[in-house]
Design brief:
- Helix content is 42%, strand content 11%.
- With 366 residues, the chain is an alpha/beta fold.
- It folds into three domains: 3-142, Response regulator (Rossmann fold); 154-229; 236-363, no CATH class.
- The strands form three sheets. A five-stranded parallel sheet has the order 2-1-3-4-5, sandwiched between helices. A four-stranded mixed sheet has the order 9-8-11-10.
């Protein structure tokens, strides 16, 4: 990947953000600032104008970074919305990161809380200041770029399905069936793939059959990994989910000497240093506990750390699972799983019953 295309409507913040992006991105990566200056062309839709502008950067060679509010972008794009930018990124197969600031952000919570947890096709970054946003963006860029480089080196056999390709990129070629569960029924994932599938025969319906789809695969695989597989615990567990799964109090598990016991299970692949990480391989956590002949992570850790505490949910029940709403440990007894907008492979993802009742009327929308 060679470019980051920046849509930021504040003329004061845009150069600052661009400066920090250039600092934290690899030195060969160019930052393209879309300032909206120029005469408005009323005969062509914004979507077509943007498509023409961005096509020259090439499918799979750029990441788009876009402010949610583009109302002050410039006379050429008066009234341009981030949804139009997102639509163009979709059409061109470009990875997209969205962020919000100022009143729209409301302290970084409202916009991200409303969309980020459940959207499996968009990446949302928290906005604290230009420097932090640039650092987070550079980490996302690196993740997509790592996937692009790794994918280009895969054999045709490894490229034969998205799940097999991602398993190979992650260095775990035997888990493609488990990864496939995260694609079952995922509308955004299917929308990215289906237009490019060659339907010569049923046996080839899952094959990656066109050059265009191959060029789009880094974006497809990156979005799938970041917004679904890493986010919803099943194959991977984040720090709180790992603590819950191992039966270790999250405050205790956050200590380096406790985490060191499970260091061999730490995830180090694409996006490993992203803001919503870190993660651990669940099956590797199992291997560590089983090979040491302990019942769970708590029993293992207690040998060297006798004051360690087990993991309980808000009702003092043994946890083991992760609430996607509260982002806290939760027990099977006090939660609901199998929610329609959870990926099929995310068997550790739950919603605490009180939150499920609160959100129940809306859950069918996701």
């Amino acid at each position: 990947m060679k470019y980051v295309i920046l849509f930021e409507d504040d003329p004061d913040k845009r150069p600052q953000l661009a400066k920090y992006l250039k600092k934290y991105l690899p030195y060969k990566v160019s930052v393209v600032e879309i300032d909206g200056h120029g005469k408005q062309d009323r005969g062509i839709t914004y979507e077509d104008q943007l498509k023409e502008m961005l096509m020259k950067y090439g499918t799979g060679k750029a990441l788009v970074l876009c402010d949610k509010d583009l109302s002050g972008l410039g006379e050429k794009f008066i009234g341009l919305s981030y949804s139009t930018v997102a639509a163009v990124a979709d059409r061109l197969g470009l990875p997209l990161c969205l962020y919000a600031r100022g009143e729209e952000q409301q302290g970084g919570e409202a916009f991200l809380r409303s969309l980020a947890p459940w959207e499996k096709k968009r990446i949302f970054l928290d906005y604290r200041n230009e420097k932090n946003l640039a650092v987070d963006s550079a980490k996302i860029f690196k993740g997509f770029n790592d996937i692009a480089i790794a994918y280009s080196k895969l054999s045709k056999k490894s490229q034969s399905t998205p799940a097999r390709a991602l398993a190979a990129i992650l260095g775990k070629e035997g888990i493609d069936d488990r990864i496939s569960l995260y694609g079952s029924g995922e509308q955004g994932f299917l929308e990215d793939i289906m237009p490019f599938i060659t339907r010569k025969s049923p046996s080839r319906s899952k094959s990656i059959a066109t050059g265009e789809l191959k060029r789009r695969m880094p974006r497809i695989l990156g979005n799938w990994l970041y917004t679904s597989i890493l986010r919803f615990p099943g194959i991977f567990v984040n720090q709180i989910a790992a603590a819950s799964y191992l039966n270790i109090n999250p405050n205790d598990f956050s200590k380096p000497d406790i985490q060191n016991l499970f260091r061999k299970a730490k995830y180090s692949g694409p996006f490993a240093d992203a803001e919503i990480g870190p993660w651990w391989w669940r099956h590797e956590l199992d291997n560590i506990v089983i090979n040491r002949k302990f019942k769970d992570g708590f029993s293992l850790a207690k040998v060297k750390h006798p004051r360690i505490r087990p993991c309980l949910d808000s009702k003092d029940e043994p946890a083991g699972f992760y609430c996607m709403v509260t982002k806290e440990p939760v027990s099977e007894k006090n939660s609901r799983g199998g929610v329609s907008w959870f990926p099929s492979g995310a068997d550790l993802a739950r919603i605490r019953y009180d939150k499920f009742r609160e959100l129940g009327p809306w859950i069918g929308l996701y």
